[in-house]
Write a structure and sequence with these properties.
This protein has 174 residues and is of the alpha/beta class. It has five helices and five strands, in the order βαβαβαβαβα.
Length: 174
């Protein structure tokens, strides 16, 4: 086991290189890479050359890039009742997972969307699970796994625990 920290809580003023240097100095061994628009880690800037550069920086500092979080804007929404938005979001998720795989990381934390007055819990749950099931075979082929977590007022009951198994890179039997 390694002691790690998430990019979610590191100062946005730090460049990726500064982050690696500072977390190493603080004794961390692992880092959850955060794709954020307000940093030099924005998902849209992840070219093959930039990914190679970041991997080298992490390696030079002895830091393992262990997982990823973040998506850029607009954020994916696979809970919405709007099929067009869900479809675009699934394409966006595939693109993000391609980037994650290029880092050699097998996990990306996915916030699936939000429950709203227009999209009640039952519909949001059905939409998210349906979308995740469609992504599982693709995720397995890319060698990545996306993870749904109890945020955004979605996973607030026992039934939502089932959603987590839909996120595995190993297809579940439904």
């Amino acid at each position: 086991m390694k002691v790690g920290i998430s990019g979610i809580i590191t100062p946005s003023e730090w460049s990726f290189e500064e982050t690696m240097q500072n977390i190493k100095a603080a004794g961390y061994e692992s880092f959850e890479l955060c794709f954020r628009e307000d940093r030099d880690t924005a998902i849209g800037t992840m070219t093959d050359a930039r990914i190679a550069e970041m991997l080298k920086i992490a390696e030079d500092n002895g830091i393992e890039l262990s997982s990823t979080v973040g998506s850029g804007e607009p954020r994916p929404d696979i809970m919405t009742n709007d099929w067009g938005t869900r479809s675009k979001s699934m394409d966006q998720i595939k693109s993000i997972l391609e980037v994650v795989a290029k880092f050699g990381i097998d996990t990306w934390l996915l916030v699936p969307g939000r429950v709203s007055e227009e999209c009640h819990y039952d519909d949001a749950y059905f939409n998210a699970v349906t979308s995740l099931r469609k992504l599982v075979p693709w995720s397995s082929m890319s060698g990545t796994a996306s993870c749904s977590v109890p945020w955004s007022g979605f996973a607030s009951s026992a039934i939502s625990a089932l959603t987590r198994s839909a996120c595995s890179s190993t297809p579940a039997t439904w």
